[in-house]
Amino acid sequence: MRNIKLIVAYDGTDFHGFQSQPNLRTVQSELQQAIERLTGESIQITGSGRTDAGVHAWGQVVNFHTSSRIPIDKWLIAMNSVLPQDLVIRGAEEASRDFHARFDATAKTYLYQIDPGLYPDVFRRRHVWHVPYRLEIDSMRKAAVWFTGEHDFTSFCNASTPVEDKVRQIHEIRVEEFGNVLKIWVHGNGFLWNMVRILVGTLVDVGRGRISSDEIPAILAAKDRTRAGVTAPARGLTLFEVLYPKNEL
Amino acid sequence: MRNIKLIVAYDGTDFHGFQSQPNLRTVQSELQQAIERLTGESIQITGSGRTDAGVHAWGQVVNFHTSSRIPIDKWLIAMNSVLPQDLVIRGAEEASRDFHARFDATAKTYLYQIDPGLYPDVFRRRHVWHVPYRLEIDSMRKAAVWFTGEHDFTSFCNASTPVEDKVRQIHEIRVEEFGNVLKIWVHGNGFLWNMVRILVGTLVDVGRGRISSDEIPAILAAKDRTRAGVTAPARGLTLFEVLYPKNEL
């Protein structure tokens, strides 16, 4: 059996998230249907992780096992010819036999985009959070520094998060002004449910002056979701890149 | 009566064009409904010109007469609070009593965006034409020069165009490589039905080597739509700006 790795981009607006659910349009089920159309095989794919309803991806990674003999350099065009327009394959590679898109991922980069304009940018509205307030970028950068390193992120994940161990490591948070958009890059070794969206919501509260950047250590220490800021909306969030050990790149 | 001028942006994807049509969602009818919600007045607005189904705008201009006393600096926020998300007011001004968005327009700039990537950019797909071929930009620029100046554009408009006089003046066509997008700016004093889309379709045929740039004068002279290139799809076209004499700015 071959093991094929795909790099997948999607506009999450019209999907009920990544993971298959009965009778709902999801990224996983659209990908599986496309593979079935090409190969005749009914296959289960593995993603690097779920993304919630409305969240986008530029570099989601999936893998699946197949007996199909379609040459690897034909997969990209073939898949894109049967996929809907809001789901695009950006790369296809032959992976090693035991490559696993979820277990082998060592880090991920998320991009969160904020539109701080007086009126929403009509062409970007599906992919940004419109925040029509003056944001103190320097304060947001100061707050971001408190999040880097290894922390228990209990205060910064959905209160219903099922996992026990809520310690994660954030390698870097970068706050960039890019044209008329504020881009927040979050790079870390793993992420809890809603974690990026709550980090960003808290940074925006800092930027608006509703939370001081100096309060972040106490909010982290409290291990209490109610102490952090709002959950930023899904529409602004994009899974940008998933990293694997070198031999899997 | 006041005369109010609005600068309007829209994502044309889900509109049946600008002009009101019974039982169809159009830009004009959505704007008129929003104005009626704010003022209680049933008003007819005037646009600088129609845009076809699927065509976008960044700087469409409309005007309308109203007895409403809403202060001019409140119109932008008020309109945007009742408009759907794919239609946004970018500016509102008190216009002179006899300002007319269509008759007073002296020039327009259209932007046509082409995505020449191997696979379509999922985040831009609603606003670009995906042309996955190598395009000879220099040839396209050479061809564009033939279009500038005053010409009879019979070969470059929809064969059903109702107007008699098909002479128009193109001030400039600029072909720009901008990141991963090819931007074609067309600036002129007036445009026939589908004119920009046929100019762009022809430029793409030149870029692909299917038409030589030297053939453009003969195609113009033929006054025959069948001699020009394809009509580029609506999705890539944006009415970028409408110009008025200085005293109306």
What is the gyration radius of chain A calculated from CA atoms? 19 Å
Flag low-confidence runs of chain A: none
Q: How many structural domains are formed by the residues of chain A?
A: 2
Spatial shape of chain A: globular
Q: Can you tell me the CATH architecture of the largest domain in chain A?
A: 2-Layer Sandwich
SSE class of chain A: alpha+beta
N- and C-termini, Cα separation of chain A: 20 Å
Largest protein interface?
A-B, 21 and 21 residues
- How many β-strand stretches of chain A? 10
Q: What's the name of the CATH homologous superfamily of the largest domain in chain A?
A: Pseudouridine synthase I, catalytic domain, C-terminal subdomain
Number of helices of chain A: 5
Largest sheet of chain A, in brief, is:
10 strands, mixed
Q: What's the helix-strand series of chain A?
A: EHEEHEEEHEEEHHE
**The CATH top-level class label of the largest domain in chain A:** Alpha Beta
Instruction: Examine the coordinates and then state which fold CATH places here, giving the name of the CATH topology of the largest domain in chain A.
Output: Alpha-Beta Plaits
Word description of this protein:
2 copies of one chain form a homodimer. With 249 residues, chain A is of the alpha+beta class. Chain A has 2 domains: 103 residues, Alpha-Beta Plaits, CATH 3.30.70; 135 residues, Pseudouridine synthase I, catalytic domain, C-terminal subdomain (Alpha-Beta Plaits, 2-Layer Sandwich), CATH 3.30.70. Helices cover 21% and strands 29% of the residues of chain A. The first copy, chain A, is built from 5 helices and 10 strands. In chain A, strands 1, 2, 3, 4, 5, 6, 7, 8, 9 and 10 form a 10-stranded mixed β-sheet that branches. In chain A, helix 3 runs antiparallel to helix 4. The longest helix of chain A has 13 residues. The two termini of chain A are 20 Å apart. At the A-B interface, strand 4 of A face strand 4 of B.
